[in-house]
Fold this sequence. Notes:
The complex is a heterodimer. By secondary structure, chain A is mainly alpha-helical. Chain A has helices at residues 3-15, 19-31, 38-41, 79-92, 97-102, 114-117, 119-140, and strands spanning 48-49, 58-64, 67-73. Chain A has a three-stranded antiparallel sheet with strand order 1-2-3. The mean pLDDT of chain A is 91. Helices cover 28% and strands 11% of the residues of chain B. Chain B contains eleven helices and ten strands. In chain B, strands 1-5-4-2-3 form a five-stranded parallel sheet. In chain B, strands 6-10-9-7-8 form a five-stranded parallel sheet. The longest helix of chain B has 12 residues, at 102-113. Chain B is globular, with a radius of gyration of 19 Å. The A-B interface holds A 23-24, 26-27, 30, 51-52, 54-55, 76-81, 83, 115-118, 120-121, 123, 127, 130 and B 42-46, 48-49, 59, 61-62, 65, 98, 187-188, 192-195.
Amino acid sequence: MTVTQTAQDLRADFAALSVKERLGLLLEFSENLPELPTRYSEHPDLLERVEECQSPIFLFVEVAEDKVHLFFSAPPEAPTTRGFAGILSELLDGQPVQDVLKLDDDFPSSLSLAEAVSPLRLRGMRAMLARIKRQVTEKSS
Amino acid sequence: MPVAPDSLPKFQGYAHPEVLVSAEWLNEHMSDANIVVVESDEDVLLYETGHIPGAVKIDWHTDLNDPVTRDYVDGAGFKSLMERSGISRDTTVVIYGDKSNWWAAYALWVFKLFGHEDVRLLDGAREAWTNAGFEFTREEPVVSPSEYPLINRDDKTIRAFRDDVLAHFGNPLLDIRSPQEYSGERTHMPDYPDEGALRSGHIPSAVSVPWARAVNEDQTFKSREELAAIYEGEKGLQPGQPVIAYCRIGERSSHSWFVLKYLLGFENVRNYDGSWTEWGSLVGVPIVKGSEPGLAPAPR
């Protein structure tokens, strides 16, 4: 699936749910966020902190053969932040550089999550996306 | 009928021992007829990962704040929130949450804006429950419908606005943010968005007591003697003085407000919820940089 298709599906999935169910879906993404591989869990200094998130989340981007690979680290007591990371991971991990860079910066706002988690909290997800794109640009140039 | 307070010896030293409960007490009393347990967290999903059995969730963004204006819900909004949470005017409400009870204390402060009488915090925050060996559940509570009166919010007694702060100069101000926020150092990198204010530093004459100094490592509150040594001994605040506390958006300062008002018995403490995100962006107000409080300007 392309980034555009997955983004569309995600939008449709969240929009079809009640506000309460949207939190449930976000929790699923939170619980399915892949574990950090040891090469990063043993070297937390390699990860970039997303300062705009209320809870500590660290991310790292790898670009190999024009494909983007994402790595996140956020504690279980920060499920919202983990959920945001899980959505971005599902959407962008393994996708071509150009497709990742083309994703609308405002994608997080299009997920019908503002009412469930508040617009302020969504800023954390936008910041995460901005940092991912910046790292992708740096590492693919 | 009011629910009897927790008689734990540690609490008896506080000015208002009835405002704290232990996990053991809560486990014993959570099914009492007139008690509602509330979880209030920074993370809006944490409750869904598991909560104290029977606890309802109240979120600071989506329940306590007005969705449009930068303010709290009004009387009608609070009434509706209480009724859907199964809380009546005479209900004993026990609040707990993540981050050493920041948001729980913030919620308690909002309950007090509406004069709800019996609101208590779980000492030791969310972790106190699991630390005591009790389990969280994902089972949704069955909320019994309640009726709550329409109460006007009292914005005078425990809440301060920016004009109140300007008029307060010469009286103690308490800045409970981190030392770096207080001194005005900034750590954000170029090209990154910063959700903070346009200027950095602190309100002139404010003394710095980072909120975390009020708690032990296990997130329980320090003893009365230890708290008095910090706020009264070291910083020279006196229970008879009017004090205004602030932080960045008013949540951590609710925690310190709770300490001063209920644990140390300060009679006149207000929380400036506009806090640094307002003051640091206001046109024309004085700011001090560095680690010294600086002199209070003339009140205006």
